[in-house]
Amino acid sequence: MVNNHLAEKLVEWRRDFHQYPETGFLEMRTASIVASILDQLGFELQMGKNVMSPDHCMGKPNDTVTKQHLEWARENGAHQDYIDYFSEGYTGIVATLDTNKNGPTVAYRFDMDALPINESDKPEHVPFKEGFRSILADKMHACGHDAHTSIGLGLASLIAENKDNLCGRIKLIFQPAEEGTRGAKSMVEANVVSDVDYFIASHVGIGVPQDHVVAANNGFLATSKIDISFKGKASHAGGDPEKGDNALLAAATASLNMSGISRHSEGSTRINIGELHAGSGRNIIPDSAALKVETRGDTSDINCYVKKQVESIAVGAATMYNVDYNLEVVGEGKSCNCSREVASVIHECAQESDKITESVLESNDSAGSEDATFFMEEVQKNGGFATYCVFGTELAAGHHNEQFDINEDTLLQAVEILYESCMKLSDLN
Asked: What is the rounded distance in angstroms from the CA atom of residue 335 to the CA atom of residue 349?
């Protein structure tokens, strides 16, 4: 398959999204451009609250932040015909093409969000050298979601161009807020995959070499992202220390005890206290403290065990120091169990590609956490099949690093393999 023009478009899209990164639930510019392209290609669009349950959006920015970013998006290239659909921060899109021929419903998920990282300006950093480095301080596509969004548009282009050769229905899901595992659950609760027979999520990189493909990655850990706040009572540290209730000590005690949670005999666990903020002055008993915590486990049950221990420790620390506490889950992801029925199709397509040197059917290597697992679990629960595949790419630096960059040859490779999988799956009855 020769797609020189598409290869150029993929790079153009990817570099544009890279230059204008948007973090979770703020992907307004990105989503408006994606929607405009999908509409032109003839897909039926569902957007915003139609594909996201507001009650299940975790860690969503407040109204002030959302409104400020809306104005930024309007001023920085958002498509004006579509931006209003995403103005409240519900930035999901589901694009459907119905062939009006008997066949299954096949869905592909692509995430769109960036990270709160300041991108490198070193001369050797390709985005800086080539002029598409992030224009925003402290925001960067440092995980490849700009590539994923572009791959989704490339797949849409091939599907639209060859729709007469397809059967059934094809759904392309563009998801916000994968970072922090916050966005997928809201789309699942809005029933966007309730009719899906085959589901495929994908990622570039994750330790897979250039020109290699992993058709089923089962290495994702279940996770919970938890914000915990403690509220005590301030007092003069020299004059009346006994009249204060120390929220900082409660948070510190909680942090130390969380780090000592017993491991689980049935699989790996993780616990990390990434942030602790407390107090307002050296001579004031701290009346407030906040922790940002994440738990992980080999399975959802093991992660639940760690999460419950965190909750118990927070209660105990608050009681010990006579302070109030609040615990909020701001992100979650499930463990992953790919379906060989659909992974084998990806594997076959990769083996048939003259651009791929090696394809692995299944890997259990650790790959962090992913909320695409909510989609996968829902599809499998309804009798369908789901997999998470990885397209290898040469990385300039690791994921979530200020010098992260990919080999853009991977874009077309991924599009072609996903399109070939769509051809094979849509023909299954």
From this structure: 26
Q: Which residues of 24-61 are buried (b: 16+ CB within 10 A; e: fewer)?
A: bbbbbbbbbbbbbbbeebebebbbbeebbbeebbbbbb
Q: Are the beta carbons of 342 and 349 closer than 8 angstroms? A: no
User: What is the Cα–Cα distance from 260 to 45, expressed in whole angstroms?
Assistant: 48
* pLDDT at residue 335, as a whole number: 84
Computed over every residue of the chain, the mean pLDDT equals 93
User: What's the pLDDT score for residue 428?
Assistant: 72
- CATH code for the domain in which residue 377 is found: 3.40.630.10
What is the domain range of residue 346? Answer: 4-220+336-426
The pTM of this model reads: 0.89
DSSP per residue, 31-46: HHHHHHHHHHTT-EEE
User: What does the block give as tokens for 415?
Assistant: 């599009």
Q: Verify that 234 and 179 share a domain, yes or no.
A: no
CA gap 321, 251 in Å, rounded: 10
Measured CA distances, 55 to 4, 24, 58, 183, 290 (Å)? 44, 16, 8, 11, 24
Which ranges of 242-339 would DSSP assign to H, the alpha helix?
A: 247-259, 300-320
Confidence of residue 344 (pLDDT cuts 50, 70, 90): very high
Q: Cα separation of 298 and 219, whole Å? A: 8
**CATH number of residue 261's parent domain:** 3.30.70.360
DSSP of 51-79: S--GGG--SPPPHHHHHHHHHHHHHTT--
Length of the chain: 429
Structure confidence at residue 429 (pLDDT): 61
Residue 176 has pLDDT above 70, yes or no: yes
For 284, list phi and psi in degrees, rounded to 5.
-125, 130
Asked whether residue 90 carries a pLDDT value surpassing 70, the answer given is yes
Q: What is the pLDDT of residues 220-263, one digit of tens each?
A: 888 999 999 999 999 998 898 999 999 999 999 999 999 999 88
Q: Where are the beta strands (DSSP E) in 193-232?
A: 198-204, 212-214, 222-231
